Amino acid sequence: MSSTADLRADGRTPAQTRPVTIERGWSAQAEGSALISFGRTKVLCTASFTPGVPRWLTGRGTGWVTAEYSMLPRSTNERMQRESVKGRMGGRTHEISRLIGRSLRAVIDTKALGENTIVIDCDVLQADGGTRTASITGAYVALADAVEWARAQGHVPRSSRPLTDSVAAVSVGIVDGVPMSDLAYVEDSRAETDMNVVVTGSGEFVEVQGTAEGKPFSRAELDALLDIALVSTAELAELQRAALAEGR
Amino acid sequence: MSSTADLRADGRTPAQTRPVTIERGWSAQAEGSALISFGRTKVLCTASFTPGVPRWLTGRGTGWVTAEYSMLPRSTNERMQRESVKGRMGGRTHEISRLIGRSLRAVIDTKALGENTIVIDCDVLQADGGTRTASITGAYVALADAVEWARAQGHVPRSSRPLTDSVAAVSVGIVDGVPMSDLAYVEDSRAETDMNVVVTGSGEFVEVQGTAEGKPFSRAELDALLDIALVSTAELAELQRAALAEGR
Amino acid sequence: MSSTADLRADGRTPAQTRPVTIERGWSAQAEGSALISFGRTKVLCTASFTPGVPRWLTGRGTGWVTAEYSMLPRSTNERMQRESVKGRMGGRTHEISRLIGRSLRAVIDTKALGENTIVIDCDVLQADGGTRTASITGAYVALADAVEWARAQGHVPRSSRPLTDSVAAVSVGIVDGVPMSDLAYVEDSRAETDMNVVVTGSGEFVEVQGTAEGKPFSRAELDALLDIALVSTAELAELQRAALAEGR
Amino acid sequence: MSSTADLRADGRTPAQTRPVTIERGWSAQAEGSALISFGRTKVLCTASFTPGVPRWLTGRGTGWVTAEYSMLPRSTNERMQRESVKGRMGGRTHEISRLIGRSLRAVIDTKALGENTIVIDCDVLQADGGTRTASITGAYVALADAVEWARAQGHVPRSSRPLTDSVAAVSVGIVDGVPMSDLAYVEDSRAETDMNVVVTGSGEFVEVQGTAEGKPFSRAELDALLDIALVSTAELAELQRAALAEGR
Amino acid sequence: MSSTADLRADGRTPAQTRPVTIERGWSAQAEGSALISFGRTKVLCTASFTPGVPRWLTGRGTGWVTAEYSMLPRSTNERMQRESVKGRMGGRTHEISRLIGRSLRAVIDTKALGENTIVIDCDVLQADGGTRTASITGAYVALADAVEWARAQGHVPRSSRPLTDSVAAVSVGIVDGVPMSDLAYVEDSRAETDMNVVVTGSGEFVEVQGTAEGKPFSRAELDALLDIALVSTAELAELQRAALAEGR
Amino acid sequence: MSSTADLRADGRTPAQTRPVTIERGWSAQAEGSALISFGRTKVLCTASFTPGVPRWLTGRGTGWVTAEYSMLPRSTNERMQRESVKGRMGGRTHEISRLIGRSLRAVIDTKALGENTIVIDCDVLQADGGTRTASITGAYVALADAVEWARAQGHVPRSSRPLTDSVAAVSVGIVDGVPMSDLAYVEDSRAETDMNVVVTGSGEFVEVQGTAEGKPFSRAELDALLDIALVSTAELAELQRAALAEGR
User: Fold this and answer.
1) Binding positions for phosphate (chains A, B, C, D, E, F) (predicted)?
2) Staple partner for A204: which of B27, B216, C215, D110, CB 3.0–4.6 Å?
């Protein structure tokens, strides 16, 4: 009803994501790249392919996919200090980098990738909530292009299919008692519960990270959030497919 | 049946935790402390109370609870390099410290705590799986004693009740297709899905962190893991109550 | 002649810059911003205004303008390691950040700015030569908008004119014996002499940094490079004026 | 006489150490370990054996023994910041780690050890004075067990005897003009002179580190301190022998 | 005229440098060394020769020359914090180290040097302006001796001539409208424009770094500064020749 | 006899120090300074006086004296990496800095110094053994001059006598079974036992740090080393007095 529509500053229904755009191949240099937007949130995702693996993996016949996440100092409302200036990465940065890496590795067959390395960089140019889930969703597109590039170049045999599925992510939460999808910053900062859900193209879970921001949440609330997340990630998977279907 | 009992190296049933002991007041110096064991996993938890809060919180009338987690270099099967020697904390350490802090803050009324700070240290003396969940479970006991100490000393008014509930945590996972509670290291390294669940004494969720280690997991598997986690955390809450009921 | 035109891979004449575009107000959050392109080189420049100055300047009645430069890890042909991961900023980064800051301070009357701080961030999204001079040229536009914002908001009196002139920069060099403007990466790596020249809107020098890459250079070569630089920076000043003349 | 006995808060005579206990094999994982207590001072010592030596020693046929010392943040009366959080080890930590390493190497025949490495970790769980000397005394027991383990496993030939002697240490000092053994924290902080003495099982010196805390000390005072230290270290050597005589 | 002579506190004419002394072979250990003074500015320059090159250069048949610059903490009027204590090198240090290295490499034929490395250290013992240009001038003498040492020892063939020219540097600037050479600290801090000029023995430019400290400078001013710099660097080249002509 | 004289490469008798020179007031800027040489070992010692004390000491009416020690990278036979480049100070550097600081504080009455700070810097220009003891001996002269400067300037009342005694240090050791004074590097590296002894002008001990390098040492050897150290430090105290007696 109209009462529900009024809940959100930008007029969205609870289960509706912001407008999502994926600008594939944004970088002229990276083997794969995508500039992804969820409303005002903008993340530049690049995938860098290099033959060979780190020393500790050499000789096992498996590849390596890892990710690094960072925010530009003025991607936020107030400028943050650069981590290179502070001389160390913060805990949040580490945590998100690890989450992105795990999410992508869930859809990679490292045997099929062979002894090759793909490093994903997700740099937040503008932040308005949901930067980690936008990063995962955009990174998948960059990764898919880097894998195709490697197959085209012969670094990975044509017969190999390193990607086993697609992967997308959304942030959901309970705001004023109502479960909602794709929280913008103003919603996120008021949420009682915040959950990041990473889901494959075939609808199975890769990560579920729910946190009580204000008060603990019940099993029923958890279930409602998962329902909404599955709807949104299915929509995102469709957008990824569309982006990858275009000629590069 | 016997077939299920055979699943676990130490003869436990799937939903059974390892023997848990809580040695309350282990430290002669800290305002609250507990040496907690889950089988061979041993964590020393201390709570350090200091009047006052960090500068950025001053004057708001609210307290601060934070946590730091660390592993002794030879708490593991192979010696790890010290983070003080490497000159920086790793991502995993940061991530777990933040999780412990959030979990404890979920049961603290920071207004009732007043402008006081409690720092929780969880140092893993021996690691055999489940160190982060053991840390949360032991830290609650140390925290409860530090709060009582502060009320006894008059730093917090007798009439204030900064603790709103208890909190405990368990690691659950799917091993060889079977959902199990309190994974030991050998089980954890074979788990297809690993989930850390933090639950209040009244049975509501504070954190749910599920990760597909091997292959993505279904909604049904997620549900089975949550069922088991609620049983185990209810048992742990009982042990915490018993430990705190004894004279210190 | 055609022989000269053949000198450059992209068909430019020696004194011609690449196509330059300035996307003013790119950031929805910063007080001033510009996405500047010199051909494939793209730099996002933001200006962050905050009332007050660092402690060591307090009470002197003067403002502070400083700059930080950084490259995204995959802005280059081969991925570079992040400085936040290495735990320290490299010498080149420091050097360029200082150059940008000095260049902008040359056209700021810090008394007229009052006790306010403006931090400029120049983040290279894609690098193809001339990133430091593109940064200075774009940063001036972001700075001008931040100063206007501060005057509109009343942080700086309407009667104050903190900007005393405009400033732009270009990289010039001698390639195969021919002085050329705005070197692209392939030209820069072959240059015998490389010079970065920073010039005000009124045509005076702020910085002249000439380096013999291959062999020492003569006074006549130095003069030829300065001639070309003055032509190009005059063109850039015109583009800055045009960008700032549009409604934001 | 009673007057002398009154000198010490816990009723000890000047030359008497606090009760010392050695819990050998405390760690289920390390090749050697001991939890040693001198009164309330408790240090967990582990010895980690690994075949091979650091690169700079390779091919010389000699082994390597080194040590690291650290204090848990709340081992002290007031919580200290973690060195991993500060991002660097302090001077005192470095100094004590080096002292422990030198002391143990004094009783190791590195040729007999072969190209193998033993790393000793001394982590102070509770501190009440004398943590560095307790560390050395406990570390010897852990080291002895790691050497035996290596001989049993065949990493070191049965015929080799890498340990040439035992080693123990005590802190002695002059308090209110009286030379005393094994200073507790309250005594140490009042001591005019503080001396750490490391002695082999056969009664020879490995290290003598005397420091005037308040006023310089005379040769006679130095001699009195050495006398007392030799008595206490002989007692400690006896306790080490007893601990190692038990079946592990 | 007398009016011009009055301009400078120490009675120098505008184009005159301070008394320059070069104490060659100051270090008993380094392969080349010089203690150079420009008035009260004193820099100890050493050249350390080692056979072989860094891994990234191996097998290319070319050598490597690099430089590090540092100031003793009390080389200045007020004590500065050590960079080793701060845990990182500042931007200015980085910038000067890179300048010295580039200047020396401009007169080295790295093919003729063969796969050998020379590291130049310039440590400022006392600072009174012009430390970077004194460093370059002294470093050349140390470098020349290290090259001769390597030829004498046979690390570089007798027939090779790795040095292609000499190199010297001077700081020039405009003070109260007058172009002056070799600014002392009191002059430098009042300069409107400051320029460091690095020139070969044959009078060609290696580096020209001009900075408007106060207000932008004109082409005519730039020309006047270059004129003066060429005179002074020719004098310095003569002093270098004289120093190297003496028996070591 | 001649047989003993033959023991030492430079013809010294066992108890003889190398030629020691103290160039007082070497620095034109520091409040006190000395360039001290023990043979080829050369250390530049400066004392920097500043009114006020670190925040943690404010309001107690006592001053603060601290020291920092460092070696130039090519003060040694083989070039060492700079600690500012490594990004951290090594354990040895920390240890020696702390030793110098403690030694000087032993002869300072911090009440008489008032709320003032003196920082001592000992920078080794050339190292040939005994750098830490040369540093202490030279630092005392720099400290004495800084104290006099402060009394002359009125920062410390004329009636106050912050220095209670002088302090000097020597390195002694057993080489080939013979106790010797002031070991040069070639002797130090062969020593079985090495001892640094810090002694006041009135002949009492401030620090005694003896280390068995090769094999443990007996009480008799310890006594012989102390005898020799007392002779040498008495000679050094005389040299300090002579240096300070000259007009500055």
Assistant:
1) 92, 130-132
2) B216
D208–F209: do the CB atoms touch at under 8 Å?
Answer: yes
Q: What is the pLDDT of residues F210-246, one digit of tens each?
A: 999 878 999 999 999 999 999 999 999 999 999 999 8
Residues of D within 8 A of F99 (CB-CB) are: none
If DSSP codes are grouped into helix, strand and coil, which group holds residue D95?
Answer: helix
**Residue F105 is encoded by which pair of tokens?**
């504080």
In this complex, is the C-beta atom of E50 within 8 Å of any C-beta atom belonging to chain F? Answer: yes
Q: Best of B44, B65, B79 to disrupt the D interface by mutation (most D CBs within 10 Å)?
A: B79
Average of pLDDT values for C208-228? 93
Query: Taking 90 as the threshold, does the pLDDT of residue A214 lie above it?
Result: no
A79/chain C closest Cα distance in angstroms: 7
State the ipTM, two decimals: 0.92
- What pLDDT score was predicted for residue C81? 92
Task: Tell which D residues from 75 to 104 touch F, by Cβ distance under 8 Å.
Answer: 88-92, 94-95, 97-98, 102
Do C211 and E90 make contact, defined as CB atoms within 8 angstroms?
no
Per-residue pLDDT tens digits for D3-18: 454 678 788 999 999 9
Q: Which residue of C has its CA nearest to E218?
A: C204
Structure confidence at residue E248 (pLDDT): 58
Does D11 fall in a domain? no
Q: Is B129 annotated as a binding residue?
A: no
Is position B7 within any domain? no
CATH of the domain at A66: 3.30.230.70
Q: Residue E79 — pLDDT band, cuts 50, 70, 90?
A: very high
Cite the annotated binding site of E for phosphate by residue number.
Answer: 92, 130-132
Angle at which helices B131-153 and B91-105 cross, to 10°: 50
**Nearest chain F residue (CA) to E41:** F28
Residue D29, domain member (yes or no): yes
Chain E residues near residue F75 by CB distance under 8 angstroms: 29
Q: What is d(CA D123, CA D27) in angstroms, rounded to the nearest whole number?
A: 13
B98 marked ligand binding residue: no
Report CB contact under 8 Å: D88, B83.
Answer: no
The H-or-E segment that residue C122 falls in is: strand C116-126
State both tokens at A77.
């409302």
Chain D residues whose CB is inside 8 A of the B25 CB are none
Give yes or no for a contact between E21 and E15, defined as CB atoms under 8 angstroms apart: no
Contacts of F9 (CB under 8 A, 6+ apart): F184, F186, F187
Query: Is residue A164 within 8 angstroms of chain B, CB to CB?
Result: no
Question: Residue F128 is part of which domain span?
Answer: 20-77+85-245
Cβ–Cβ contact A50 with C under 8 A:
yes
Percent of chain D with pLDDT over 70: 97
Total domains, chain C: 1
Q: Per-residue pLDDT averaged across A66-95, rounded?
A: 90
Report the 3 state secondary structure along chain E.
CHHHHCCCCCCCCCCCCCCEEEEECCCCCCCEEEEEEECCEEEEEEEEEEECCCHHHCCCCCCEEEEEEEECCCCCCCCCCCHHHHCCCCHHHHHHHHHHHHHHHCCECHHHHCCEEEEEEEEEEECCCCHHHHHHHHHHHHHHHHHHHHHHHCCCCCCCCCECCCEEEEEEEEECCEEEECCCHHHHCCCCEEEEEEEECCCCEEEEEEEECCCCECHHHHHHHHHHHHHHHHHHHHHHHHHHHCCC
C-beta atoms of E88 and C88 within 8 A = yes
Residue C224: inside a domain, yes or no? yes
B-D contacts at Cβ under 8 angstroms? 83
First to last CA, chain A: 41
Contact check, Cβ <8 Å, F29/E82: no
